[in-house]
Amino acid sequence: MNVLVAGGAGYIGSHAVRQLVEAGHRVVALDNLHRGHRGAVDPRAVFHQLDLVSGTEIPVVYGPRRAGDPAVLYANADKIRRELGWSARYTEIEPIIATAWKWFQKHPGGYESEQ
Ligand SMILES: NC(=O)c1ccc[n+]([C@@H]2O[C@H](COP(=O)([O-])OP(=O)(O)OC[C@H]3O[C@@H](n4cnc5c(N)ncnc54)[C@H](O)[C@@H]3O)[C@@H](O)[C@H]2O)c1
User: Fold this and answer.
1) Model pTM?
2) Whose CB has fewer CB within 10 Å in the chain, the N or C terminal residue?
């Protein structure tokens, strides 16, 4: 059987890929490698680095820290809701990426091209 494993480089996904390959299935693993590791994917499976929200291949380039990079980043909208009454329409990462991606596809020049 052909099996597609989304998040195939993650903890659960990589174990699922190995078990499926060992059971004789033809496995394709998809992962954007945001949290998973390429090396965790069984080499007998076909691997595609792909983001399931945008549908695009996103090359990951690791480099040294840049001046101004924060050590840790946390985001919480409680204060703006309390003080200004603003609340986010999207709070989960997938719809945040999906709506931002749609906007950038519609406005490839960004905000400056709108002025
Ligand atoms: N590990 C556990 O013990 C455990 C227990 C119960 C539930 N879960 C749940 O099961 C799910 C998987 O857990 P896990 O431990 O394997 O997590 P994980 O972070 O190791 O694996 C998830 C994988 O999905 C990939 N991914 C995420 N968003 C993606 C996207 N848009 N496109 C492509 N790839 C994407 C990540 O890069 C990662 O490799 C999670 O939702 C987790 O909360 C895990």
Assistant:
1) 0.68
2) C
Contact 45, 28 (CB under 8 A): yes
* Cβ atoms of residues 4 and 47 within 8 Å: no
CB within 6 Å of ligand 1 — which residues?
Answer: 7, 9-13, 30-36, 51-53
Nearest CA to ligand 1 atom 24: 7
Query: For residues 14 and 7, is the Cβ–Cβ distance under 8 A?
Result: no
Low-confidence ranges of the chain (pLDDT < 70): 60, 114-115
Centre of ligand 1 to C-alpha 38, Å, is 14
Q: Using CA atoms, how far apart are residues 115 and 27, in angstroms rounded to an integer?
A: 48
pLDDT digits (tens, 9 = 90+) for 69-79: 888 877 788 89
